[in-house]
Amino acid sequence: MLAWLNRIGIAASSSKIGGIVYDKLCRRIDRVLIPLTGARLAMGPPGQTLLLTTTGAKSGKPRVASLAYLNEGDDLVIIASKGGAPVHPGWYHNLKADPHTRVQHRGGSEERIAREATGEERDRLYARMGGTFANFLAYQERATNRRIPVMLLSKPQ
Fold this sequence. Notes:
Blueprint (H helix, E strand, L loop, with lengths): L1 H13 L1 H22 L11 E7 L6 E7 L1 E3 L2 E5 L10 H8 L2 E6 L2 E9 L2 H14 L2 H8 L7 E5 L3
Antiparallel strand pairs: 1-2, 1-5, 3-4, 4-7, 5-6, 6-7
Helix pairs in contact: 1-2, 1-5
C-alpha cells in the first residue's frame, strides 16, 4: 500500500515546486513525526528517512534536518541535494565544520561521524541513491552549477 504513495511522493518532489514544498513543509513535519513514531512514519520515504542533528557552523546551535538515506554496510548515505538548489544545504556546511552528528532513524538514535565521499565512491553512491529515489536524478539535473555532495555517516570507532 505504501509503495504507490512513495512513488507519488518521489514524482512530486522531483519537480521544482515539489522540491520546494518538500524542503519547506514536509521536513518540518518530519521533525515531529519521526520522533513520535520511532521513524516508522515520515513525509519522506517510510523507513528510509532520518533526522540529522548537526551543530551550526556559525551559531553553534543544534540544527535538525530530515533526509532520505540508504545503508552502505554499517554506514548511512545521505545526499546534500537541497532539491537541486544552486547552493549546498546548511547541514552540509555544518558537517564540514564539525563532522560529529546525531541521527534518529528506525534503528534508534545514535552518534555518527560524517565524511564526504569522493571520486568513484561518490559517483557509485549517488547512482545508487538515484536508482532508489528517482528524484535525486532530477536534482542533479537542476543543480547545473554544482556537483551534489554525498556524505557517509559512520559509527564512531
